[in-house]
Each structure stands twice: as structure tokens, then as C-alpha cells.
Amino acid sequence: MRLSRRGLLRAGLAGTAATALGGLATGCGVPTGSTGRNMVLWYWSGGLSPKVVQDAKARYDSAVNLQAIQIGGYYRSKLMTTMTGRAHIPDIAGLKGEDMASYLPNSDQFVDLRTLGAEKLKDQYLPWKWDQGIAPDGSMVGFPIDCGPVAHYYQPAVFQKAGLAYEPADVSRELATWDQFFAAGEQLKKRLPGTFILTDALSVFGISVNQTTKRFVDKDRHFIGDQEHVRTAWDRSVEATRRGLVSKIINGTADNTSATERGLLPSQLNASWAAGDIKLNVPKTKGKWRVAACPGGPSNIGGSFLAITKACREPEKAFEMITWMLDASNQAQGFVDSVLFPSTPASYAMQKLREPDAFFGDQVTMDVFGPAAQNIPVAFNSPYDIALSTPINDELRNFSVLGKDPDKAWRDAMSKCRRIADHLGVSY
Amino acid sequence: MATAPVVDTPPAALAETPVTHPKKGILSYWRLYAAISPFYLLFLAFGLIPVGFSLYLSFHRWDGLGTMEFAGLSQYRYLLSDTQFWTSIGNTLIIWALATFPMIFLAMVTAVMLNSAVRFKNLYRFAYFLPNVTSIVAVAIIFGSVFSTNFGLANALLQAVGLDQVAWLNTPWGIKVAIAVLMTWQWTGYNAIIFLAGLQTIPGELYEAARMDGAGPVQTFFRITLPLMRPVLLFVLIISTVTGLQTFSEPQVLLQTTDNNSSFAGGPGHSGQTMVLYFFQQTFDNNDFGYGAAVAWGIFLVVIIFSIINWRLVQRRGED
Questions:
Q1: What is the DSSP letter of A378?
Q2: Which of A29, A131, A201, A369 has the highest Cβ tally under 10 A?
Q3: d(CA B280, CA B2)
Q4: What are the tens digits of pLDDT across the range B159-208?
Q5: Min Cα–Cα distance to chain A from B2, Å
Q6: Cα separation of A279 and A132, whole Å?
Q7: Is the pTM of this model over 0.90?
Q8: Cβ of A23 and B150 within 8 Å?
Q9: What is the b/e burial string over B264-274, where b = at least 16 CB atoms within 10 angstroms of the residue's CB?
Q10: Residue A20's Cα: distance from chain center in Å?
């Protein structure tokens, strides 16, 4: 066949048009996932244990070809874009705990895991964590990966020098309430000038709210951020700042690293996964840390889920895989590999998780985290929580960093919240 | 239609325009249009349609996954009454001014010095251009430690000359200055190279004549160099305006550690929250895509207004 110049031009044009329109053409009609043997799993770096993912690949290789893809950048945006575009949707998707509230109202995009027999496994998982994966309409969207029980990380040598309790059991007992914790902070400051028990006031607020069974918007789309539980957390945070217990050092800066190494910031209230950050940021402090119970009781920060999307062609197979990947022994592996704290209480007694940790002076940290994880209060997470807690956090920062009058800051926060509630159709 | 319509074309184009026959319309040139179509088709698919969709979206409420609800003009009404949006416009302009004017001054000085330098000219050019191609994220992290309160370079310098420490990333002005310094550092070299190109178009005879007339270097600069550099200056100013109004990465990376609940809040009191940062916060932190689209169109209007101001400046120059 002789190709004329004109023919070439036509062919080229047709090709270009097909390319330009191809993307649009596939965007209509049925949601497409994978076909046949292929099964795509989306997660993020550190979201699952690499070893468990590898094992799952090998284990199910005869039936499916599992392609586990680590998505970088803003994970939620990319997942939402793909789901909205209705093309190349992963069969199995990791969902971050802080994003759950935005996925749950759209439970119709996911397979209800109850239909695949999830209920049979319920008693192997932490009840509060299990409930977090369930949508308002009762369907089960997320299967529990990990959780983030909050603990009190502290440097015993500094506490001892300040005349405070310094053995983990003693610290847990003598700094059990916020009042005791603040009193200890005052003593620390008095005995060792320039030393602070808190790095920022906002963490006190966030953890205090998480220690209650309510957040900012309730199930009926009503604003509850002006109620007792939030006000108490606010006042507590204000009190810590007023008593001079909060350092001016910004998290994550060189100042912070240096001050931590020198023992000027000997205490952190943070989730189990923060142990990894401490090890990474201040490796020189190895052996100088211990873990004790968080003042004011257990709470949780973060933790994720796996979900099966409606695009999945073989939900039964997918369910079999995720339940295997997230069983008690694989969750224990996840803790060893990636500091993913198991949502399966059976893991807590396993030898793997009871190894003495040299970074924490050979302490068995599970003794602190395990009981905390089992007693975390359950609160309803509304999709409007983020928008309606932002002004409160902002104003709290205006007070603690910029020195705004706290009462005015609270009033401003509330009036901003009411404006935003109006805009979002939330009653107050 | 007996005659072809008179089209106001520049002379260069006229020379190549074939004589049009009345019955020969656009269709007779289909091959030419086909040849340039790929760009337009791609632009349509990935540029125009999304832009149109964002306009459509701004009249709705949408959480990014569920169904869209029609909201009429309520997103725009809310935008106009949103103090935080106005704050972010103010922040953007202040940061832009703090960054642009020192930057233009420094770039001009650098260019004049480079222009008179004899040895290692290319090495200097390369060195000055380097900040512009360095990863902004890496740079912002370095600047984060430069502006650290206790152990930062900036405060060490202040203390060396006997001044007090400044909590750079914890005060409204400190934050703005830190972002502006970062932008200045990034763009000075780039603009110096542009100025240098401008300087080299000025004929040497003018300088020789000035020397003959006994003008000093300062006089020469203000009487000859600066007036002839005006168009280049204006070009740099316009480019800086367009990029400055879209400032996003610098405050985002510099301030993300100061906000433990959002990396788009722009530090305490939203002091470093630029327009685009605010757009990101509303859209991706709150999942409020409808309102985010309205914010984006608000930003578009602000940029248009400034483009018109720039354009008028250029027009006036043209009439001089």
C-alpha cells in the first residue's frame, strides 16, 4: 500500500482525535475497575507493611495478580479524583482515618463489607475502631488497619533532675490527670529554667477533645463545638499557656530538634506512631526516652482502613485478601515494620510486640500502648468536623502565639463557626 | 458578501496572506487548521473544559464524591463576606510588594555589576541563575532553619549586630518577611539575567558620548541606562506580578510545621496565607469543592484587575 501525504495527514488527525477523545469516552457508563486476574491496591508509603503486601502477593498469586501501588502526594485528592472520573479505580483502597468522615457519607461508592461476612470477624478487632469504619446508613466501608493510641513520651533523666517521678509506672500514676501534669510542668520549669513540658498549646486541646465522646458536629448535623467538652478542652489549653508551661519553639524546626536533644523539651504527648518520628528526628537521644500513660485518659490520633470499591470485579476475593493481610499476626508484622499499631488485641500479647525497645531504655512499650488502645472513647466523626474545628484551632493559636485575649478569641471562634455552619447547612 | 472583510493584520502577516476568493472560506484551509489542531484539541480537553467545569461547579455544593446540589450564587455571596479571603488578598499583595521591589533593585545592581565585570562572566551568570532552578521545597526547608528563632542564621546575624531576636515564623510580619526573602532570593538571579540582556542592547556609543561630556557613573546610570531599560523593567514587573499573585509553595512549605492541623493555614493568624493557599485550604482540607471553585474565580478576578493595571501602564508607555 502506497501512503500518500494526504492519507498520512488523515491518519495522523484521526489518531490525535482518538487520543484527545479517548480519555473522555472511557469516562462514561459503567465504573471500570480491573479485569480478570488483575487486582489493584492503592495505599501510601508506610500505610501497610511492605512485607505483608509481598506475602499477600505470593500467597494469592495462583488466583489473582495483586498490584499494590504506593500513591504519593495528597492521597485523598487522588483517590477522589479517580473515583469521580470512574476509570482505573483501584479494587482495594486504603482510607486514612482523618479522611473517613468524608468517605462515609458516600458509602454507595464502596462495597458493604457486611455482605461479605465481616460480622464474623468483629470480635477480633477493637470495638471503637470497628465502629469508625461504619457509615451513617449502617453499611461497613472500612476494615481496620491500625490505630494511634496517645501516650506520654518523656526523658526520665530530666524528670529525675527536676525531682519528678521518672519510672514509667510512677509517671503514669502521678501524672494521671491534667492538673497533675500541669503541676509537674511548673515544677520542671522552676527547677530547670528554660525547660518546658509542652511544645504547643494546640496539642492539649486536640487530645482533650479526643478524650471525650463528642466532637464538633453531631449525627444530626448540629454544631456542638460550643458545648462543655470543647470549652473544657479550650480552657485547659489556655491554662497551660497562662501558667507558662508551653515553649515558643515550633514543631518540626531545627530549634525543636536541638532543644529536644538538650533535654529542654523532655516531654511529648503523642500517638504511638510518633515513636518513629522521634527515632528519626533525634537519633542521638536513643535510650533517653520512656513511655507512660497520657494524662486525662486514653485517646487516639490517626489510624487507617482498607475498603473495597464498587469497581472491584471480585469483592469476595478482595475481602479474603484484606482480612488475611489484617489478621492479628500480620498486624503484628505491621507494627514491627512500619510502627502500625495493631487494631487486633490478640497481637498485643505476641512476642514480636513485647520485645524490649532499646530506644526506650529496653522498656516494653506495649504495656502502655496496649491498655490505652483498648479503652479509647468513641466519638462520631462528622464530615463537617474539619471545617468547624478550624476556626477554634486558629483562634487558639492567635491566643497562644500572638497573645490575643482568650475570651475574645473564643467569641471570635464561635462567631466564625456560626458563619461557616450557615454556609454548610449545619444547625446551631 | 462581495468583498472580503478588512482584517487588521500586522504587515508581516499580510505579506503571507494569499488572496482570498469570495467563495473560498475557512474550509479551504482545513489542512492548515488540521495541522495546528492537536494543541487546540488538547487545550480543549485539559484546559477549557476543566475551566468551564469549575465555573459550573462554583454554583453548586459538592463534597468531591457524592451528588452535586445547585446552590445558585450562595458560594459567591459567602465569598464576598468571608474576611479570611480578604485577608489572604491583603497577605498576597503585602508579600508581593515586600519581595518584588527589593528583588528588582538587587537584580538591577547585580546586572550592572555583571555587565561591567570582565572575568568569569559566565560563571557568575550561572551562579546567579542557580537559585531559580533549585527545588523550592528543599529551599523552603533550608529557609525554615535560617529563620529558626533560637538557632537560626537570621537571628544569629541580628544578635551579632546587637539587635534582639525575632520570632520569625511566629509573628505576622516576621512570617511575611521570611516568605518575601525566600522569594527575593529565588528570583533575583533570574531577573538579573533578563536585565543583563537588556543592558547589552544599549549601544556603547551612548556611554562613550556620556564620558566625553564628563558624566560620572551615577549620572550615566540614571540618565542613560535606566531610561533605556524601562521596557525591560516593565516586563520584569509584569512577570513578577503574575507569579507573585500565585504564590503558593513558599508559604506552604515554610509554614507547614507551624500548623498541626493543616498545611494550608499559613501560620498563626493566617499571616502567611496567600490567595492560592486559601483556595487549597477551603477545597482540599474541608472538601468544599463548590466553594473552592468560587474562590478560584475570585482569585481569577483579582489577577485580571492587576493585569489590566499592568496593561494600562504598558499602554501609557507606548504613547510616550
A1: P
A2: A369
A3: 55
A4: 888 888 888 888 899 999 999 999 999 899 999 999 999 999 989 889 88
A5: 32
A6: 29
A7: no
A8: no
A9: bbbbbbbbbbb
A10: 39
